[in-house]
Each structure stands twice: as C-alpha cells, then as structure tokens.
Amino acid sequence: MEKFQLQLFFQIIGLGSASGLLYHNHLLYLISDNSTYLYEYKIESNELTKIALTENPAENISKKEKLDFESIALKGNKIVFLGSGSTENRNIAKSFHLKSKKIKTFDFIKHFENFRKITSLSNDELNIEGLIIIEDKILFFQRGNAINASNGIFIMNEITQNIIFKTVSLPKINNVEASFTDAILVDKTIYFLATVENTISTYDDGEILGTFVGEMNLENFNIENTILISKTNKFEGITLFKNTESEMEFLLCEDNDTEELKSNIYKLTINKK
C-alpha cells in the first residue's frame, strides 16, 4: 500500500456534509450527518435522488437536533445506516430495502448503553463512525477522539447479542492520535479511514491534521499497513469502487463542516504491486 493516487473525482450538488457512502450495483448511496435523507446518485448521468427517511425530512438540521448518521453498510437487500450514539437523539438506526423501497427504524439505545458499560465511556464519549456486517457478526468502529475514549471495535454476535470490545492503536500526527472515521470489508481485509483532528470532543470540530487509510486483518484485528493520504482533508466515508489484479479504487467523501449543499467525492487508487 505504498503507491497511491488521490484525486477529486466529481462533485455532487444538492448534498452537504457527506458522512458515509456505499457503491452498489452501479449506484452510489450517501448519508449526511445533518440530514434526514438517504441519497442515491447515478455517476454516469449526474442524477441525484433524495429518499426521505422521516415524515418531515430536512437538510442542514441544527447540531443539537440532528440524528448524526455516520455509518452505512449493506446487509443482503438492505442498506443499513446508524447514528453515532454521541448524544441522546443519535441512537437511531434505519434500513432501506433496495427492492421494496421500504424504510424501517430501529432504536439502538440499549446496544449503545451496553457499549458504554463495557468500556466505561460517558454518554458523550461514545462515537460510532463505521459499520461492517458479516454473516452473524457486526463490527462497530468507535472513534476515540474524546478525553477518555479509545479507538476500537465493538464486536457483536447478532444471534446471542454478546459484545466484546477490541482496543486499536492508530498512528499519530504532532502527538495527536488518529481516530476511526469509517471502515469497509474487502474479502478478508478491513480497509479503514482514520482522521487526526485536534479536538477532545465528539461534538465540536477541531483542526484537521490529516487522514490515514489502513489495512486491518479481519481475524485478529491487527493493523498491517497505514498510509497518510492527505494532510488537510477530513475523509469520513470509504467504499470500494473497482478491484482488479493490479489495483484497487475506492471512493471517499469528506465532511466539509458547512451548510453548503455541495459534496466532493474523491477517488483513491492503490497499487497492489
């Protein structure tokens, strides 16, 4: 993972503060941490469709009231997305069925309460930023950017509901540790994003010092490689775009932390050789 190319791929008008994305069946699905829409984007025709997730959907919801969707994953014929759990109203999970187009809502507060108990996190230190669903197991990536929080992965058995927490140490810049912002699974390897943000709050933003992409072994969660891909961008979402014998292409989104309804989508190309 030494040779890479990062470039601005395209720009989506009508969507702001992108916090997660999923490329599936030639369509790009995106979530925003301050919106109650799911977005479907056709790359070839530059066509954006907004799918309402609530009765009164809105964009640019105030920070205190937003559901803070940060994680998105595919489970069979459903797209699942999840709030960060960092405040009382960020405990909601939703699913969108790709065939029936039906939306379901799930209250995740009990799971998040268990996450806090296991790790002794306070209410505002839990901050789930990535989600991977594997058969009977779900991985939740905790962004450890609060005072007492550690980066790590909550591993939940979907059948027994048993939960364990695996602490993960990430690279540092200027003595500030990176923290998870997203993760996906490709074959047996976890590819994750981790941003270095000079803040000790899950609520307030800080100075961006850089973003890493890394490889992690699915079996033991050991980090096998990391690379600093930007010193200025706060990338919050990653999805696989193309995978060939010689290279992998990922699409990345960044949270611009503004109310402007415009999102830059980047393409990260990594040479396998």
Structure, described:
The chain is mainly beta and 273 residues long. It is 4% helix and 55% strand. The chain is built from one helix and 22 strands. It has one helix spanning 109-119, and strands at 4-13, 18-24, 27-32, 37-42, 47-52, 69-75, 78-83, 92-97, 103-107, 128-134, 137-142, 152-157, 163-167, 172-173, 176-177, 179-186, 189-198, 207-217, 223-230, 235-243, 247-254, 262-271. The relative contact order is 0.17. The model has no long low-confidence stretch (mean pLDDT 92).
Q: What features would you highlight for this structure?
A:
273 residues; 1 helix; 22 strands
How is the secondary structure organized here?
Layout: E1 4-13, E2 18-24, E3 27-32, E4 37-42, E5 47-52, E6 69-75, E7 78-83, E8 92-97, E9 103-107, H1 109-119, E10 128-134, E11 137-142, E12 152-157, E13 163-167, E14 172-173, E15 176-177, E16 179-186, E17 189-198, E18 207-217, E19 223-230, E20 235-243, E21 247-254, E22 262-271
Antiparallel strand pairs: 1-22, 2-3, 3-4, 4-5, 6-7, 7-8, 8-9, 10-11, 11-12, 12-13, 14-15, 16-17, 17-18, 18-19, 20-21, 21-22
Query: Considering DSSP H and I runs of 4 or more, what fraction of the residues is helical?
Result: under 10%
SSE run:
EEEEEEEEEHEEEEEEEEEEEEE
**Low-confidence runs:** none
Label the structural class. mainly beta
What is the distance, rounded to the nearest whole angstrom, between the alpha carbons of the first and last residues?
8 Å
Q: What is the overall silhouette? A: globular
What is the helix tally?
1
In quaternary terms, these chains amount to single chain
Strand content: over 45%
The radius of gyration over CA amounts to: 17 Å
